[in-house]
Amino acid sequence: MNLPNLLEAKKRNNQEVLVKTNAYIVENNLKNLGLNKKYYIKTYGCQMNEHDTENIKAILEDMHFTESTDMENADLILLNTCAIRENAHNKVFGMIGRIKNLKEKKPNIIVGLCGCMAQEEVVVEEILSKHNWLDIVFGTHNIYNLPNILKKAMNNKKIEVEVLSCEGDIIENIPVKRDSKYKAWVNIMYGCDKFCTYCIVPYTRGKQRSRQPEYIINEVKELIKQGYKEVTLLGQNVNAYGKDLNIDYKMENLLEDVAKTNIERIRFVTSHPWDFTDNMIAIIKKYDNIMPYIHLPLQSGSSKILKLMGRRYTKETYLELYRKIKEALPYSSITTDIIVGFPNETEDDFEETLDVVKQCKFDSAYTFIFSPRVGTPAAKMQDNISLEEKNERLQRLNQLINQYSKEANEKYLGKIVPVLIEGYSEKDNNKLMGYTDTMKLVNITGNKDQIGQIVNVKITEIKTWSMDGEIVNETDYVSI
Ligand code: SAH
Ligand code: SF4
Ligand code: F3S
To answer: Which of 55, 82, 102, 366 has its CA nearest to residue 219?
Structure first.
């Protein structure tokens, strides 16, 4: 048993990160572990977790498990969890309650919890004391070892907990079963060293570890061969890419080298305003295949709160960066994340946030109420703002955000924009769906041969969260 330890997870060392190309192996005696068995996996949280799930699926299929989209039918149920806010946590415990009923009816099913919540001491303590009927708990650094963890769990009748609190090396040979045939997640770095005072990620994902550029470029080249049209470069703080490598190679170099592979579309998330350089802006402008879409979390518009959050930029420097990006890339869409109700955020502080929103008129924003996470500095800060007040601020903020989203979308009406058609629309099976270069969701009338293609679409109607359009042949984009 290896239990999580927050103090260990907080430590950063200068130990060199090794790149291992053969750490993932499925021993012969484990290869048939999943024969005639089905797995069901539910994913919570960010793109990083979604991509981890793609790895977990491939590992399970290496052991001959087959996927089931119906939990009731599965022999193995995994919850790949997120620890970012209390409600993510509550959803998972709610789900564990449902699965308990299933396990009572079918005691032979294997139930596991993995992902960021597995890295939290409080979570594992709660599982061991209240839900020790679970079979496995494994952390974000243990994914490559899943075959062995599963074998132990299937042989023993006791709960198997394998959570490393010190990040391991970079494992380059983990297989992947991608959800899409057209767009792919590509990790460029793991972990985060920013330690924003509210955030649990540096503890659940460990220290920043950038992948070597050649592995990233080769992965992209391989994806092109397989017919992929779009890659999204993934990291908690992609602009800090390369800072931990022993070579002089930064995010702007990586972006340029990925652009030169000629993959049709490149996206990257998430950008921290702190590390966003002029060179990066210049590279995004230079290459047509780097999409004009930037997710640039603001968190707060108050310089006082930003300081307490440990974000290391001010209201003014954020606005300056925003203007620089818009000046260089006027067509780009910029989205953001905002936290309201950080400890002791005053009405004046909150109004500073509204002021930034009014100045930037974001294309869209994810907004959250501050959620204290055990082990982070902000969870210990005195807080004199009531939840009622925080909710009221969230509503005021959302109203403003929605107004600007709508305005941003309305600029598209009648314009022709490129859309990568991904498949059928979830809401209307007679329609196709895809995203514009600027990451706007569009529902389109078209035929299935167009799935996987980048087509020109004339926007015919604007809705609150999406747009409708029709495919046209004209290529004359009208600037927005
Ligand atoms: N790496 C990204 C953020 C990843 S977490 C960045 O630095 O911007 C996604 C978002 O969740 C954050 O941008 C933040 O707005 C929100 N978030 C993180 N911790 C939170 C907390 N304790 N309470 C409320 N929201 C939080
Ligand atoms: Fe969390 Fe800050 Fe790292 Fe983003 S940059 S993952 S908010 S610590
Ligand atoms: Fe959640 Fe972990 Fe991502 S905490 S947001 S799943 S890195």
So the answer is: 55
Identity at 158, one-letter amino acid code: K
**156 with 193, same domain?**
no
Q: 432 lies in which domain range? A: 416-471
Residues with CB under 6 A from ligand 1: 84-85, 198-199, 236-237, 270, 272, 297, 299, 337, 339, 368, 370-371, 373
- In this prediction, residue 480 carries a pLDDT of 54
User: Is the pTM for the entire model greater than 0.85?
Assistant: yes
Asked which of 410, 445, 461 is the last residue of a domain, the reply is: 410
What kind and span of H or E run contains 310?
none
Atom of ligand 3 nearest to the CA of 200: 4
Q: What is the pLDDT of residues 144-169, one digit of tens each?
A: 999 999 999 888 888 889 898 887 78
DSSP secondary structure code for residue 210 in this structure: E
* CATH code (residue 43): 3.40.50.12160
Nearest ligand 1 atom, CA 369: 24
Whether residue 244 sits in one domain with residue 134: no
**Residue 260 and residue 405 share a domain:** yes
Residue 478 confidence (pLDDT): 53
Give the C-alpha separation, 22 to 168, whole Å. Answer: 14
Low pLDDT (below 50) residues in the chain: none
Cis check: omega of the bond before 232, within 30 degrees of 0: no
Q: Residue 465 has what pLDDT?
A: 84
112: tokens are 């596991």
Domain presence at residue 265: yes
Confidence (pLDDT) at 167: 79
CA distances from 445 to 132, 411, 415, 467, 471 (A): 50, 21, 16, 12, 7
- Whole-number Å distance, alpha carbon 82 to ligand 3 midpoint, is 5
Nearest of 144, 176, 147 to residue 22 by alpha carbon: 144
Q: Please, is 405 exposed, middle or buried when counting C-beta atoms within 10 Å of its C-beta (0-12, 13-18, 19+)?
A: buried
Tokens of 170: 């970079």
Phi, psi of 202 (to 5 degrees): -60, -20
Q: Is 64 left (phi over 0), alpha (psi -120 to 50) or beta?
A: left
152 and 265 housed in the same domain: no
328 in a structural domain: yes
Same domain, 420 and 403: no
Same-domain pairing of 318 and 444 = no
Q: Which residues of 178-212 are buried (b: 16+ CB within 10 A; e: fewer)?
A: beeebbbbbbbbbbbebebbbbbbbbbbbbbbbbb
- DSSP character for 15? P
Q: Is 199 in the pocket of ligand 2 (CB under 6 A)?
A: yes
Instruction: Please tell me the total count of domains within the chain.
Output: 3
